[in-house]
Design brief:
This protein folds into 3 domains: 8-190, Golgi alpha-mannosidase II, domain 4 (Beta-galactosidase, Chain A, domain 5, Distorted Sandwich); 193-266, no CATH class; 278-354, no CATH class. The two termini are 46 Å apart. The chain contains 6 helices and 25 strands. It has helices at residues 177-184, 227-230, 235-238, 290-304, 308-312, 317-325; strands at 8-11, 20-21, 34-35, 43-47, 55-59, 65-71, 80-85, 91-98, 100-103, 108-117, 122-129, 134-141, 151-154, 157-159, 164-172, 189-201, 204-215, 222-225, 241-247, 253-258, 261-266, 278-279, 283-284, 333-338, 348-354.
């Protein structure tokens, strides 16, 4: 149950101007932290059939995806299924004989019919909220049912037709005409799952993301890439980039791509790394300074003396992992250094950490 007494899947995307930063920003330094508004439910995909007895189930659990199902009670079938995939361009709901209900705790200010896309199979609306965000709503009914009625019932509710079966998709756009055209070209299709494959040739590694999808076979599949993806994308994959962008919670500005497969490459892989200390500009370091050897020996002795079975046998895998990663609380700085064969060359640090 949401803040406005709703049962459904809540969606929000917080713009940068709504973040609150730590006190350092006032002194000209980088902020120590930022926080975003909580409990913002800009759009909620629901149905009038859902209520206090709503049951949420999941299935098809995979590395990047899961299906979320909402059913009115434990004795009824789901009335809406959400295929959730990391990076998806729309939040998509597959309705079965239900009355769609789109809600917001931000307040709707306007809903405007905006024609059709996808060869006339998908109907489109523009929705504005009181926080000045702009959203697009697309409906692709099963069969030739004509334009489904979508009525602004009040400032918090948009209600659809009874007995609706088909697809409803919601997307936020922060780019005007260009971003809207990108969504128009992708509405009616949605991702179901993703897989990763990789290969290495010499010091170049190549990996790919490939998505399976449902819905329209002629529309483009819109998926968002993070900044670190763009840094290593192949030239062919970069060609499928669009003007559609969205801010992520912590990873910067994501950009929309319309391709079923992305190919990325990492060059200069450290394929010659072994157990010896290593640094990009030095390669393998065979000689380690005596002070570093002493510190390594001391740290290793302490860590090997810990009973890891007792230490990590926690009810929580999270805290068990923390204990495993940091078996002893110590503030000793571990210096890994190398010494040249030349007596005139000083010892140089190649890596440091806290032991």
């Amino acid at each position: 149950m949401g803040l406005n007494n709703s049962w459904g899947l809540a969606i929000s995307n917080i713009d940068r101007d709504r973040l609150r930063y730590g006190d350092s920003i006032q002194t000209g330094d980088s902020p120590k932290y930022f926080i975003a508004p909580l409990y913002v439910q800009e759009m909620i995909l629901s149905a009038t059939e859902l209520g206090p007895d709503t049951l949420l189930t999941t299935d098809s659990h995979k590395q990047f995806s899961v299906n979320v199902n909402l059913q009115p009670s434990s004795t009824t079938a789901p009335v809406v299924r959400f295929p959730i995939v990391q990076g998806m361009g729309f939040v998509s709901g597959l309705y079965v004989g239900a009355t769609p209900l789109i809600r917001s705790n931000v307040i709707f200010t306007e809903i405007v019919e905006a024609g059709t896309v996808n060869g006339g199979a998908t109907y489109k609306w523009r929705v504005s909220l009181k926080d000045n965000s702009r959203w697009l709503v697309y409906m692709t009914p099963n069969g030739a049912a004509g334009r489904p009625p979508m009525l602004l019932q009040d400032s918090n509710n948009i209600i659809g037709p009874t007995g609706y079966s088909g697809l409803i998709q919601v997307a936020k756009t922060i780019v005007d005409a260009c971003g809207e055209l990108v969504h128009d070209g992708a509405a009616g299709t949605y991702p179901l799952s993703a897989s990763v494959s990789a290969s290495v040739e010499g010091s170049v590694g190549t990996y790919s993301f490939a998505w399976t999808r449902g819905g329209s076979k002629t529309q483009s599949l819109l998926m968002y890439a993070l900044p670190h993806h763009l840094n290593t994308m192949s030239a062919d994959t970069l060609k499928s980039g669009t003007c559609a962008v969205l801010w992520t919670s912590t990873k910067g500005l994501a950009r929309g791509f319309t391709a079923d497969v992305w190919t990325l490459q990492e060059e200069f892989l450290p394929v010659n790394i072994g157990f010896d200390p290593w640094r990009l500009d030095l390669g393998t370091v065979r000689k380690v300074a005596a002070p570093a050897v002493d510190l390594i020996t001391e740290a290793a002795s302490k860590e090997l003396a810990v009973d890891l079975d007792i230490l990590t046998n926690e009810p929580s895998a999270y805290f068990g992992g923390k204990a495993s990663a940091h078996p002893r609380q110590s503030t000793k700085r571990l210096l890994i250094a190398y010494r040249s064969n030349s007596p005139n060359t000083p010892t140089r640090e190649i890596q440091s950490c806290w032991a």
